[in-house]
Structure formats: structure tokens, C-alpha cells
Design goal:
This protein is an alpha+beta fold. It contains three helices and 13 strands; from the N terminus they run αββαββββββαβββββ. The protein is 22% helix and 35% strand. It has a six-stranded mixed beta sheet.
Length: 193
């Protein structure tokens, strides 16, 4: 097994950005996490419905925030990684004037909804929590369609989230401060294959 680290990246950030800008196809999204090129499939209909469900709940409870879909973020140490979360919750206007890959300052929460592909386990459950914690994003919400659960990662410290709470669909999930949103996840049962 080959382990990629930022000390020996698969590719450098500038090369990744050039490829992502010119070679991305309509059926995938490219990311650079932990020095490794990642390919994320374009979301299916249920995936999109989950993101919209979450967007509506966040706007109802926190109208001062927007859930920005697919906003590119600079993540990891020295901001050398590039992630495109399914949603980035931030105060209105946070990304104004920023380019395709924005600094994560001001982002209160990132959201990932698992896709039905072979890399979902490594990407969404291992690499993304580490990358988002290293960027000191306060909350990472993982909607895991395979496990039919929601995991709330919070309290980033020294490059890792020190709290992770997992609840199955149907439970009430409290997103901690600075997010301060409560989700009744019963509706998520409608988006299970």
C-alpha cells in the first residue's frame, strides 16, 4: 500500500489547479487532499435533495448564514490541499471577491454527503475529516448514505477533530456552536436506496 503525504505529494498544488481548471469533465469533480489527486463523482438526485434539505434547514434557523454548494476551499497545513465540499456554511458574503479556491476562514461548517463509489470510505470518512480539521473548520457534517447515519465532527485541535458523534437517520442532531442548528433527520430516510 502506498501512503501519500504532503512531504511526498502525488502532485503539486499548482499542477493540480491547472488540471482541475482545464481537464475536469462534466461527470467528476477533482480534489487534492493529502497530496493525492481525488476524483469525486458528480452527485445523483438523492444526493442533491439531501444538500437542498440541509440548505433549507440552515437558512430557516440561521438566516445570517449561507450554505454554499461546491465552494472550493484551501485546506490542510499551509493550505496546500484543495477540497470541494458538498456545502460550506459561512456568513453571507464570506466568499465575495475570492477565486475558485477560497481561504477557509469564516467557514463554520463543511458538509459531505457520501456518494456510491469505491473511494467514498477513504475520501469522506478518513481524508476529509483530517483535512478540514487541519484547516480549523469548526464543524464537519458527514451525511453517510451507506451507513444511514449522520456524523458531526467538531472541536478541531492539533489537526484532528476531538469530538465525533454519529446518530442514525431519524434522530435529532444538534450541530454545535458556532453553527447552532438542530436537524430532525427523519426526512433523510426518503433518500435511501
Amino acid at each position: 500500500m502506498t501512503v501519500m503525504t504532503t512531504d511526498r505529494p502525488q502532485m503539486e498544488r499548482d499542477a493540480f489547479e491547472a488540471i482541475a481548471m482545464t481537464a475536469a469533465r462534466e461527470d467528476v469533480t477533482l480534489e487534492l487532499i493529502n497530496g493525492r489527486l481525488g476524483v469525486k463523482p458528480v452527485p445523483d438526485g438523492d444526493h442533491g435533495e439531501i444538500v437542498m434539505w440541509l440548505l433549507e434547514r440552515c437558512l430557516q434557523q440561521r438566516p445570517d448564514l449561507n450554505l454554499y454548494p461546491e465552494q472550493g476551499l484551501k485546506v490542510e497545513s499551509c493550505r496546500s490541499g484543495r477540497a470541494r465540499p458538498d456545502g460550506a456554511l459561512a456568513p453571507v458574503g464570506t466568499f465575495a471577491g475570492q477565486g475558485e479556491w477560497a481561504e477557509p476562514q469564516g467557514v463554520l461548517m463543511v458538509v459531505e454527503v457520501t456518494s456510491h463509489d469505491a473511494d467514498a470510505d477513504r475520501r469522506d470518512r478518513v481524508e476529509k475529516p483530517a483535512a478540514y480539521a487541519r484547516a480549523y473548520i469548526p464543524v464537519y457534517l458527514l451525511v453517510d448514505r451507506d451507513a444511514r447515519s449522520v456524523t458531526v465532527f467538531s472541536e478541531p485541535e492539533h489537526g484532528t477533530y476531538t469530538s465525533a458523534v454519529t446518530l442514525s437517520y431519524g434522530h435529532t442532531v444538534v450541530l454545535p456552536e458556532p453553527v447552532g442548528v438542530t436537524l430532525d433527520t427523519e426526512d433523510l430516510k426518503a433518500y435511501v436506496r
